Each structure stands twice: as C-alpha cells, then as structure tokens.
Amino acid sequence: MTTITKTEDAPSPTGSDAFLSVRDLHVRFSTEDGIVKAVDGLSFDLERGSTLGIVGESGSGKSVTNMTVLGLHNPERTEITGEILLDGEELTGAREKTLERLRGNKMAMIFQDPLTALSPFYTIGRQIGEPYRKHMGASKREAHLRAIEMLEKVGIPNPKLRVNDYPHQFSGGMRQRAMIAMALVCNPDLLIADEPTTALDVTVQAQILDLLKDLQQEFGSAIVFITHDLGVIANVSDDILVMYAGRAVERGTTREVLTAPQHPYTWGLLSSMPRISSNVDEELQPIEGTPPSLLNPPPGCPFHPRCDFVDKVSGEHSCKSERPELPAGRGAACHLTAEQKRTFFVEQIKPRLG
Q1: Which of 237, 291, 293, 296 has a Cα-to-Cα distance from 149 of 20 to 30 A?
Q2: What's the 3-state SS for 203-252?
Q3: Domain map of the chain by residue range?
Q4: b/e per residue 268-296 (b: at least 16 CB within 10 A)
Q5: Pfam families, per this entry (predicted)?
C-alpha cells in the first residue's frame, strides 16, 4: 500500500519556488528477494519553461522518479514517502481521480519505446485525440481535427491522410513524433521525456531534439529529459541532475556540470563518451565494475566500490562508511575537498576529454 510522509521543512535545492518541486523522495518496491530502494532521498526543482536533464546508468532511478511524479506505480507494491508538488498541488498519495485529471492535461510523458506505448488496435489519430476529448470535452470531430493539427506541428507529412494510419505503418521516427503529438495535445505544463531518442538514428534524433525545443518555446512547458547520453543532454537542458543508485550525486547548470564536473561518477560518464577527435585505435574508458544492487546498496557513498579516488579521502570522513550529502544549489555528494576535485579533474580527467 502506498504511504506518504510529508517533508514540509526540507529546504529547496535551489532556494526558489519551483513549478515542480520534489522533496526527499523515497520509492521502494516489495519483491520476493526483499525491498528495492529504487529512489533514496531525492530532491530537485524545475521552473516553468526550463529543461532539467537527469542522467545516469540504467537502474539509477531516473525513470522510477518520473513515473512516481505521474503516479504510474502499482500502489499495492510500492512505498512512496516524501513530497511532490506540481504548481503547488501535492501529488504523493493523491487519489487516482486527481492523477487522471492531471495526466495528459497538466503533465504528460513521452515514453522510450513508442511501439509498445502506442496501441496497435487504434489509429494514430484516435490515440492522439482521446486525451483531448477526455480533458477538453471535445467532440469526435474536434478531436480528429486537433490530431491532424498536432501531427502537422510535429512534422508528419500528409497529416490528413496519416491520421488514419496505425502505429505499424509509421517509421520509428514518425512514431516518436506521434508520441510527442499525443503528449502535447492538451498543452501540458510539464513534459517528461524518457530517453525519447535512444532507438533513433542520429539524423532523426537531431530532428526530435529540435522539435522539443520549438514546442517548448511555443507552449512554455517545463521539461524533464531523462537520458544516459551526456552528448544529448548538452543540447537540450538548462540544468543537469546526475543520479546514481537512486540518489542525486551532482547538480548544476549544464555548463557547470559538463565543463567543471565535481563527482568521480560524472567524470566517469564523461570519460566513457566517444569523441570525434579521438584516435580510431584509442580504447574507450568505461567505468569499472557494475552499479550496486538496490536490494542491498553499499554503506557510505554508493559509488565507492567503483571509484578510483576512494583512497584519496582522509580525515574524519570515510567513503566506505559515511554517506556524503548533496549540498543545496551547485555541488556534488562527495567527500573529496573542493581543491582535490579541481586538481584531480584538471590533472587526470580533463586530458582524457581532449
């Protein structure tokens, strides 16, 4: 059964009254093997008209967090504590009727795989028009015309004809555009894009990213963009939240995080990216090891079993026993001193990045 614990005294990570505000969010799933701590004390803010990029490996809690915002978890198997405010309205523990009123209307999601998210039994036009009928009280004809309008907005050729097609008749890029049209049909204030370009070729990927930028300017939506690709996030986000093992380990503006990262995990993500300037024979530098089990995460810093700098911390703190906290505003959850972070990045990490 879903439970809720309010955290009204938790400070804002950015010190502002945000459109979307998440405070000390914990999400746990009951399984036969034990309790999965999928999200463990996450807080962030998002302003209207801004884009927050959430990055991290698979299993870091990115999608779970945003499905929690939308209220898509099974309440019988999920324990949720913390606070989620959307334009001042509490979502954690909200009734299903309240969430249905908000989903597709005030908040919407673009899923990673449109072929599984779209029903094969209904036309593209019907699926785009359905939320418009439900939330706007439109007739079938009005919804049909609105679907044509949205398909045209997202760049589908011959929208008056293609509105009657089924998902299998669309290419991968066209299905993704149709998903975006369905998410935006009611002009939502919050749009969550869950790795919407992962399965697309680079040309279509660029078109989708440009489309999201244009539509954000038109509708003024706040966007949460989930991805594991820092190259993509550099082109779309205003701010970046780096997640690892269900926790936020670094936060800052896109420029700050990509040009002067402070957490060893972020260093690893940047170092593992292929670069055009690299020698073709040069090997990629992956992050050694694997993400921890969320059934039994390691004590202290969750990244310490994979961190190359774990032995550089001295004094009263210990990466293996004491959990570092993420400071408000710009910062990283790491026991390294500010001087150590600057030195290690400049001397050891930056040369790898070219």
Answers
A1: 237
A2: HHHHHHHHHHHHHHHHHCCEEEEEECCHHHHHHHCCEEEEEECCEEEEEE
A3: 117-187, 263-275+285-352
A4: bbbbeeeeeeeeeeeeeeebeeebbebee
A5: ABC_tran, oligo_HPY
